Amino acid sequence: MHLIETHAHLDNPKFRDDLSAVVQRAHDAGVTRIISIGTGIESSRRVLALAERFSSVFAAIGIHPTEIDEEKENFISELRKLAQNPKIVAIGEIGIDYFHPPKEKMSQEEIDVWKKDQAIAFQQQLDLALELGLNVIVHQRDVVGSTAAWEKVLQILKPYTGKLRAVFHCFGGTPAQAAEVIALGHLISFTGIVTFKNAPIVRETAMVVPSNAYMVETDCPYLAPDPHRGERAEPWHTRLVAAKIAEVRGLRLEEVAEATTKTAERFFKFPSQR
């Protein structure tokens, strides 16, 4: 059995002291490939270095929407240089985040500029992905009760339909929202949230989404699944995410592993390990 952990933050300081052991635990649990995600230029350099250090680790590079203000204007050229490395398998994570404003009190003008800058950076990185022949990992987060960020992401993505594919990572939406992105040719990915008692909508979505339209991840070190909530999430927890999905779909773990591995191999253009 092979599983692919499609979204980890291995450059997080929480992994600094025992990363080799973390990677080994993943292998022991059947997680044979890990994609570590960049959130800025320096983070992207770090995850690429980790991918070069571990044969089973690959990297995605990009500027997270909450990091846009911290980056220089030439970040696209920097990403383009990094992307020449064959261990880069996607651009991400990129997208729109209206949940984390850069400061507590902002004027309407500042809010408008903040949102515009995110949209521009998102589109620039989509253009880069198209240029490089890579797919993208999308981060989307709204203020509670709003769908503005969701709608903006879809608005920006629609012109790229049929040209590149996106995975909406850490998906927490409804079956209808999942169907909306899948109809555009994109994917969704589930984290440990699918195991949380207070996340019935995520389990409902995991139950009905087509078998070739989703992947599994942890977003580690965040969102550790039950029974490890409150602990540091690790890539091996991908197995627990897949096991919960198997449970709600009435399948064996091996079936979910095979389906999600095939989907991840296509999306990230990996050779098959089976």
Describe this entry's structure for a reader.
This protein is of the alpha/beta class and 274 residues long. It has one domain (3-268): Metal-dependent hydrolases (TIM Barrel), CATH 3.20.20.140. It is built from 9 helices and 8 strands. The protein has helices at 19-28, 41-53, 75-82, 108-132, 148-157, 175-183, 200-208, 238-249, 253-268, and strands at 3-8, 31-37, 57-61, 88-97, 136-141, 166-168, 187-190, 214-216. An 8-stranded parallel sheet has the order 1-2-3-4-5-6-7-8. The longest helix has 25 residues, at 108-132. It is globular. The model has no long low-confidence stretch (mean pLDDT 96).
Number of helices: 9
Q: Whole-Å distance between the termini? A: 9 Å
Give the strand content: 15-25%
Shape: globular
Mean pLDDT across the residues is: 96
Helicity, as a percent range? 40-55%
What is the total domain count? 1
Structural class designation: alpha/beta
- Strand order, biggest sheet? 1-2-3-4-5-6-7-8
Sheet having the most strands? 8 strands, parallel
CATH superfamily: Metal-dependent hydrolases
Task: Give the arrangement of secondary structure elements.
Elements: E1 3-8, H1 19-28, E2 31-37, H2 41-53, E3 57-61, H3 75-82, E4 88-97, H4 108-132, E5 136-141, H5 148-157, E6 166-168, H6 175-183, E7 187-190, H7 200-208, E8 214-216, H8 238-249, H9 253-268
Parallel strand pairs: 1-2, 2-3, 3-4, 4-5, 5-6, 6-7, 7-8
Helix pairs in contact: 2-3, 4-5, 8-9
